[in-house]
Amino acid sequence: GIQVEQSPPDLILQEGANSTLRCNFSDSVNNLQWFHQNPWGQLINLFYIPSGTKQNGRLSATTVATERYSLLYISSSQTTDSGVYFCAVGYSSASKIIFGSGTRLSIRP
Amino acid sequence: SAVISQKPSRDICQRGTSLTIQCQVDSQVTMMFWYRQQPGQSLTLIATANQGSEATYESGFVIDKFPISRPNLTFSTLTVSNMSPEDSSIYLCSVVLSSGRIYNEQFFGPGTRLTVL
Lengths: 109, 117
What we know:
The complex is a heterodimer of chains A (109) and B (117).
Chain A: E1 4-7, E2 10-14, E3 19-25, E4 31-37, E5 43-48, E6 52-56, E7 59-64, E8 69-74, E9 83-90, E10 98-99, E11 103-108
Parallel strand pairs in A: 2-11
Antiparallel strand pairs in A: 1-3, 3-8, 4-5, 4-9, 6-7, 7-8, 9-10, 9-11
Chain B: E1 4-7, E2 10-13, E3 19-25, E4 29-37, E5 43-49, E6 56-57, E7 68-72, E8 75-80, E9 89-97, E10 106-108, E11 112-116
Parallel strand pairs in B: 2-11
Antiparallel strand pairs in B: 1-3, 3-8, 4-5, 4-9, 5-6, 7-8, 9-10, 9-11
């Protein structure tokens, strides 16, 4: 089946820094989503981005489907950005998605 | 997006017992899924909850251990049967909204945090 790899696994930054998280996938996809899991376990939808570029405030994402990767950019990090960031991809008509292993981001004040 | 609620939000159970988790959505949805997130791990799909028919289970998950019901387009239950400490996880439901929305974007409920002693 399709493989989803995220890097780096862990990232520790000072408040105000910028970061880039990467998601590589092994096959063509029809769905790619980025999620933020906050310290309370809630999964928050950040982007639905099977291709192209989107921006939402300090966050932006780019998916290059032909090269099978997606990037999530976080600018001017805040402590509330801490948590785990997951990439998930879908590849069938069944709407199922497969999650990567996540990037744990810690923003220090 | 939709408002998705889960009950209970957390529970502590004894081994050998069963727990039923409910997932309620405030609008009709085409698809509902159940996931497990073991401590410190990513999310793993348990099954697709099919409205009016048996759920479709992923490899490694069986109906006897994780029976699922979906009586209508807004509600589903997942039962964790004959629990052991290895079942301690967060269980999450997710939905794909009906037509008129982005086709297969998934939205997640708040999760049920289960501890088995």
